[in-house]
Design brief:
The protein has 145 residues and is an alpha+beta fold. It is built from three helices and seven strands, in the order E-H-H-E-E-E-E-E-E-H.
Length: 145
């Protein structure tokens, strides 16, 4: 049995704007990461940095389907897939799925933590794209060691 982490949110913006909000580092640094080595593109690898962690995270095996989905690997055991769905009111449903880890106690903690993390990602993205608010700013300073 494989574990997975899931989260979803509706964003009151057109799908193209939400898609660019995810693949363009200038946008992502306003609500998720502190640095990126470049725009997410199919077949490309980028490096992400988070202000609260000293490590840099390689984002590999990127697959992009314009205005529909983004998938990547940043943990060799899992694949992250972000899907976008255009809704009738011109808003966008964003779903995140990260899966692949074997079921055990340690990985169960991972699944719970990553579900919380992806829900936070989506809430921060919604606040930024809809209102220009940067929820992550200072939110995780307590995690720095």
């Amino acid at each position: 049995m494989k574990l997975e982490s899931n989260a979803a949110i509706q964003i009151q913006k057109p799908i193209k704007e939400v898609f660019e909000g995810i693949i363009e580092p200038e946008n992502m640094t306003k609500y998720f990461i502190s640095e990126s080595s470049g725009r997410m593109e199919s077949g490309k690898e980028v490096i992400w940095k988070f202000s609260e962690f000293p490590d840099k995270f390689p984002v590999k095996e990127i697959k992009i389907e314009n205005n529909r989905s983004i998938s990547f690997v940043w943990d060799p055991e899992t694949v992250v897939t972000i899907t976008l769905e255009n809704l009738e009111d011109k808003s966008t449903l964003v779903k995140v799925n990260e899966n692949g880890k074997e079921f055990n106690e340690e990985n169960l903690k991972w699944a719970l933590g990553n579900t919380e993390g992806w829900a936070n990602f989506l809430a921060c993205m919604k606040a930024y794209l809809e209102y220009g608010i940067q929820l992550r700013k200072g939110a995780f300073d307590f995690m720095r060691k």
